[in-house]
Design goal:
Number of helices: 6
Distance between the termini: 74 Å
Largest sheet: 2 strands, antiparallel
Shape: elongated
Strand content: under 5%
Order of helices and strands: HHHHEEHH
Length: about 110
């Protein structure tokens, strides 16, 4: 009964007493009740920022694409004339000889 809200408390009190402006009195008390404030509080919603124009505007499929040079690439070290080529050397080559042209063929030559 204590934290049931204005209507429940007013109903129980009116069975025994008649108090003028009872709902105003109850509402003033409930506003100071920490338990009612805690459980009756509304959660704050995060507002989402506007989407970038590139995601909202229409364009053809795969008109813009990106290539992830950071991996992880499932590359297995293989044996050839120079011995074993460690994976870190392949990534070092990609980082040092970056892809300036961004063409389809040059992406796979690196």
């Amino acid at each position: 009964m204590f934290h049931g809200g204005i209507h429940l408390i007013a109903t129980h009190l009116r069975q025994l007493y008649w108090i003028p402006q009872l709902k105003v009195v109850i509402n003033a008390r409930l506003r100071r009740c920490i338990v009612c404030l805690r459980y009756g509080a509304e959660t704050a919603f995060q507002r989402m920022a506007d989407l970038p124009a590139a995601r909202v505007n229409q364009c053809r499929s795969f008109e813009e694409a990106g290539l992830d040079y950071a991996g992880p690439f499932p590359i297995k070290a293989s044996r050839h004339r120079g011995g074993i080529t460690p994976i870190k050397d392949i990534f070092r080559y990609i980082c040092m000889h970056g892809d300036e042209s961004c063409s389809f063929g040059s992406c796979f030559v690196v």
